[in-house]
Amino acid sequence: MSSTGDSTESSYLRKRLERERAARAQAEELLESKSRELFEVNQILERSNEHLDEQVQQRTSALQAQTKLAEDNANRLNSAVQRLEIILTAARAVSWTYDITHHTFQVNGGDTTLLKFKLDEVVDFKKLKEALHPDDLTLFRETFSELSYLRTKIDIRVRFKDQDDQYRWFGLSAVASRSETQDPILLGALIDVQEQVKREEEALALSNKDSLTQVANRRYFEQLFASAKQEAQDCGTGFTLGLVDINEFRLINESFGQRTADWTLQALADLLFDRFEDTAAVARLAADEFVVLFHRNVKATQAFVDLEQLVTSIDHFDLNNGERVAITLSAGAACFPHDGQTFDNLLQAVQTANQKSKQSRFSSPKCVMYHPGMDVSRQRDRNIRHNLQRALIQNEFSFALQPLTTKDGTWLAAEALLRWTKGPRDCSTLDFINVAESCGLILPIGEWVIKSAIEQLGDIQKINPDFWLSINISPAQFQHQDLALTIQEAAAGTEVDLSRLAIEVTESLFLDDLTRVQNSLDRIKALGCSIAIDDFGSGYSSLGYVQQLPIDYIKIDKRFVDQITEHPESQNIAKAIIEMSHSLHSKVVAEGVETLLQAEALAALNCDVLQGYYFARPMAPEQFLAELRQNS
Ligand code: C2E
Ligand code: CA
Ligand code: CA
């Protein structure tokens, strides 16, 4: 080989080497970059794997949590359903759904034995309606009409038959909703509210009743009055209102105590209730003031007769504790609409009538029918009261003296009867005494009577020292005055022999505190005075008082004397009074003797003293003294 040849070969080799080097370098570079890429891919892969793992883990635990929650919820739901079931049963309730469009009714839970039929059998309203009280049908129909879904809420009370065929009250409440198929439905509950209704009714009845007597109270009575008025107006009729009360009830309260007074009121309430249960409503308006509202079918005359019959037939109550309380009743009556068109007006009319019945205190108890003239008399009473005050100051009083005699007319004594010399013409002694008693003026008037009677007795004793004088004393004077002291003071400094003074008291006094009355009477007796019971037989009449109290005379009421010759009954009563008084060592005076026949009849019964127009009328003191002088 030649050197040229050699050099070509070597250059070729060199070049080849260089090429190979370059190629290797390129390859290395590629490898490098590829392996870098691979590394990166690998890293990405690794990262995404990690993320995936994480996600899988997260999902798994979320899934686990959800499963747990679902389980818990299912458990909770289960026990909630159970609890609801328990609550519904305990509340005597069922829950139900009513599909308004299809009229289907479904019970979902609760006490299904509440009603006559099994509630879960009910699929339509027919069965429910069958068990429903007829009076509740309309309400039920209206509530469950086609339009019921328009309401957001339903809450009614109706009666269904229970298993014993008895109607019980149920509360039916519901709210409007939608079913899964978007149909309008009602979701509701049916609850047995019988006990609650009963309690409510009891509470209502209680709030309408007077707690002491169990009759209607004033509040409720005003409602009864309003509906009676409405009814009467609708029917073009009227009705009668009666007012009954116990005379001198205050005295029962004061002398027997509140318990006895309460029992007395209860006895009266029971009596009124029994008598008028079928014809009237009875209510208590105030202390002893009872009203009787007659049904519009009861004629006024009948109502009047019934009331009159009531007051005349009762003279005592036998109380729960065995006690016996003597009472008299008075009654008034007035008619709607003639005598008053409002509650207040009619009540006022009936009170006025009742007041009139009281003022006739010396006749037997009775019922008085209102008439407009009575308002005039009310006004008149007001005038009398006003003028009496003046009369006291200006000394317008005097006495009329009426002799008390033996059967052959010998004067033994006189009764001093008060006169109001300048009083209104038509105003009798009883008229102004009644007014004076009702307003307290009887106290100063009574003092005047005592003082003047003692002066009068002084004049009489100058003529006949044995002659005695009697004066009338009102119960109020016992209550508010020390009578013995008043008499003693009036007699002080005079020569008057008090053993010739008698005081006349009415039986109503004995309704007062008996011990106190006895005490006063004893002290009056200690002054030497005599005690007489006036108008005996007109009121509470009990000879028991005569036995217990220091009574010297009994004055038989004019009523018996009037009838003694005509009614054997009156004669028998007079006879009994006289005999019993004598056996108790009391003397008997008969008052109001107007005829010879009466005088003879009384004399035949051994009546000790007689008084009346037949023997002598009450006369002015001058005339009396003149005649006494002649007689003595
Ligand atoms: P009283 O105590 O029963 O008096 C008897 C009344 O009958 C007297 O009426 C008398 O005038 C009348 N009278 C007497 N005899 C007859 C008769 O034969 N026929 C008739 N129809 N009446 C007769 P008067 O004077 O109008 O007195 C009425 C009542 O006024 C008395 O009834 C008495 O309760 C009361 N009163 C009179 N004076 C007083 C008094 O000073 N104080 C008090 N608190 N009351 C008095
Ligand atoms: Ca008298
Ligand atoms: Ca009398």
Task: Please outline what is shown here.
By secondary structure, this protein is α/β, with parallel strands linked by helices. Helices cover 51% and strands 20% of the residues. The chain is built from 20 helices and 20 strands.
Task: Please write out the topology.
Layout: H1 3-90, E1 93-99, E2 104-110, H2 125-131, H3 137-143, E3 153-161, E4 167-178, E5 184-192, H4 194-208, H5 218-235, E6 239-246, H6 249-256, H7 258-276, E7 280-286, E8 289-294, H8 300-313, E9 316-318, E10 324-326, E11 329-336, H9 343-359, E12 367-369, H10 373-393, E13 397-405, E14 411-420, H11 429-439, H12 442-463, E15 468-472, H13 475-480, H14 483-491, E16 501-506, H15 514-526, E17 530-536, H16 543-548, E18 553-556, H17 558-563, H18 568-583, E19 587-590, H19 596-604, E20 609-610, H20 621-631
Parallel strand pairs: 11-12, 14-15, 15-16, 16-17, 17-18, 18-19, 19-20
Antiparallel strand pairs: 1-2, 1-5, 3-4, 4-5, 6-8, 6-11, 7-8, 9-10, 13-14
The structure holds ligand C2E and calcium ion (2 copies).
Residues 534-535, 555, 591 line the site of one calcium ion.
